Amino acid sequence: MKAAVFEQTGKLSIQDKPIPNLASGDVLIKVDLCGVCASDLAALHGDVTDYSPPVVMGHELAGIVVDSRRSDVKVGEKVTVNPMLSCGTCEYCRADLDKYCEEIEGIGHDIDGGYAEYIRMPKHGVDTEKLISVPDAIPAEDLLFLEPLGCCLNAMRETMFDKSVAILGAGPIGLLFAQLTKKKGLQTFVLEPLVHRRDAAEKLGVDAAIDITEKSIGEMIETTSGGVDTVISATTNNMRAIDLAFKVVRRGGCINFFGLAPAGQEIRVNLEHFHYMGHKLMASWAFSRWSLNESRRLLLDHELQFTPLLTDRYPIEKAVEAFENARNRRGVKSVLAGP
Q1: Under DSSP, is residue 164 helix (H, G, I), strand (E, B) or coil?
Q2: Class of 2-149+287-337 per CATH?
């Protein structure tokens, strides 16, 4: 089979690999679609280190079970995965905080993932309920968003909200957040420099999609009488994004630095100023079993729009081009498609 392998920092290669062999209790999934995630881009660039190359990347997948070595998973089931394989028994796992488990292995991070024609879901992953099945009627184009939507839902539960929110970035994550905040009844502003992504945000019904100019930002601050209640930074948290977040949040407001940051990026805070401004600073990452279950429910109930997000498809053989497309933000969401 063809697979896109993260060999080392700066090197993604297309390789011919054997279709995975199954042991007792394993499941084989034929991958239909797998989304290119910002974390994969960051790993390839060397900005994050929670990967174990060489490894087949890819964790936002939609596929079909084509071989099963267990009685509780049937061939033909439409599935995705919870890509965090954890012990299932430690204090963190019992509290639905699998992401902090000391024995965690990530699909597409530490064990081979979905940038391939087939992926093996190991017995332990199925035993700990990390294989997620959906009805046949759910299209693969929606199913691949189940995991990233779960990340957003986790952040929504953790973040402080009042009446207004500014989302920095109108990429796939920003547009998922925009739909969730509108669904919550919040006045939603999306700040995005690229016209085609602002257009996508407007089609999804945000209150305003704003270019990042002094005039536009000033008008938004005036409209909200001093700034928004909450900022969710759904973009790369470089110094420009950090400064913008502090600029548009009101006194006493909350900032969630959800997006990844370049290696070595720091936030320096004047503690006296911070004290009197009363900002609430936080970061959210990954998902929980609760949020993936809620994400599945939203997919089944057709409560969100995913079609405007998926803009660019590539065969596995063109994974390098897909990564470049995503890095240059030419569309919204780039995906790799199986044969």
Answers
A1: strand
A2: alpha beta
**Is the distance from CB of 338 to CB of 32 less than 8 angstroms?**
yes
Strand residues in the chain grouped as ranges (E): 2-8, 11-16, 27-35, 55-56, 60-68, 78-81, 84-85, 105-106, 118-121, 131-134, 164-168, 187-191, 208-210, 228-233, 249-256, 280-282, 310-315, 333-337
pLDDT, tens digit, 9 for 90 and up, residues 43-58? 999 999 899 999 999 9
Half-sphere exposure of 138 (CA within 13 A, CB side): 28
* 3-state class percentages of the chain: helix first, strand second, coil last, to nearest 5: 30, 25, 40
Query: Boundaries of CATH 3.40.50.720 in the chain?
Result: 160-282
Is the pTM here over 0.90, yes or no? Answer: yes
Domain 160-282 top-level CATH class: alpha beta
Contact yes or no for 296/134 (Cβ under 8 A) = yes
Tell which residue, 259, 250, 253, 205, has the closest CA to residue 226: 250
pLDDT band at 263 (very low <50, low <70, confident <90, very high): confident
Buried b / exposed e over 126-148, threshold 16 CB at 10 Å, is bebebbbebeeebbbbbbbbbbb
Model confidence pLDDT, tens digit, residues 285-322: 999 999 999 999 999 999 999 999 999 999 999 999 99
Beta strand 228-233 pairing with 105-106: unpaired
Q: Where in the chain is the domain with CATH 3.90.180.10?
A: 2-149+287-337
The residue to which tokens 């184009």 are assigned: 141
Q: What is the pLDDT of residues 90-142, one digit of tens each?
A: 999 999 999 999 999 999 999 999 999 999 999 999 999 999 999 999 999 99
Q: Cα–Cα distance between 43 and 258 in angstroms, integer?
A: 17
φ, ψ (nearest 5 deg) of residue 180: -70, -40
Query: Tokens 């939609």 belong to which residue?
Result: 62
